[in-house]
Amino acid sequence: MLDVVLAGGELVIPETGVVRGSVGIKDGRIATVADPDETLAARKTVDCRGKWVMPGLIDPHTHIGFGDKEHDFQTESRSAALGGVTALFTFHRSADLRESSAPWIAHGERLSCIDFGLHFGLTSALHVDTLVETAKRFGVSSFKVYLMYKGAAGAAKGFTEIDDGLLFRTMLEARKVPGGVVGVHCENVEVIPVFRGPLKAAGRTDLAAWDEQSPDFLEAENVSRVIYFAAKADCPVNIVHLSSAEGLGIIRRHRAVYRNPVHVETCAHYLTMTRDDPSGFLAKVNPPLRRQADCDALWEGIMDGSIETVGSDHVPRKVATKAPDLWGASAGFPGLATLLPLMIEEGHYARGVPLTRIAAVTSLNVARLYNVPSKGSIAVGKDADLMVIDPHETRKVDHAALASYSDYTPLQGRALRGWPVHTFARGRHLVDGGRLTETALTAPAGHYLRRAV
Fold first, then answer.
1. Could you give the domains of the chain?
2. Is the pTM of this model over 0.85?
């Protein structure tokens, strides 16, 4: 007897296509993928006729602990489940990762209702010196360097050792880790003040000024340096939250010359929002939102495979941190719960992006890049991380319904299709009829994703 059957839905299998069928779940895993007319005995059957059944999303880019550190794993995992996100990766930084990682992992396993993994944020020589040791101890194969925290900008945040030397040493060490990949935030922070001063002097406080103080070519210049160094270090690199057409062009040209792996991630907001967004500086983020031409180019990258993964860059702070104006507001905003609906509405419905491609960039490719073979698709033996979507249901985004610690969203009132009516994480029913279940609210059972390194 199966535990759950998702019966008669349109199964979105990223490797092969969309087919009608039923999925049987047993002991937290997919036990069978059957013909839609086959009768499967189960304790619970969910009628999925006329609905899409997709792999749960794996958000590769979140910042858990940046809102309410004590409770973020609880609130944000619930928000994730409402948006069909059944696993996430979050960035972990501390003075000494050897000391902080185990308590942070244990904290997450106590509170999270979905599975989670860590990327290590490397900001000092100590982090690089101990990279291989910490990677093996905690099963982490992905690392991030923040080029926007070089020099004076870094010192203001308490980081004094970030430079190109730290970046290159990180690459040399990361290549010693099986499956190791270095993610890099690319912005040339040393040139930003050249633009920022005159903009502030002119009294500019509109959102577009944030783009003008860190224009696209400052991202592209950093992208060029990073991927060149990666080629010389023979290290796989991941350009995270790519925002610009110019940056993508640099990557394409590099791939035509070099053979070292260059992975590319973008975020839903760079695909669906611009520097003219009506939410104003609520949408301040690093790198900045760009122009419509950049959105169009990034969608082309999704379609042709140049961009492999899409995340949210979720930051669950309160709206009070978005004050008093553009220059004083915090950067980043919440996006876990709206990642999938944005991709469905603006990708599938508005641009004809196949559902299989959306499933690939939000699930399958993330699982492959970050070495989580039990997730990412609909196949026997995989974790039963699944969601059921009513393709005809439209909802307006309302921050109050997203269960996040954050009390706002720059998408407030935006009508979107693509919300899950059911979400299952390792077979546990977390969302039923679009609402969190008692299981999600009272029995968190998220697992830490320790990767083989």
1. 2-52+382-442 (2.30.40.10), 56-369 (3.20.20.140)
2. yes
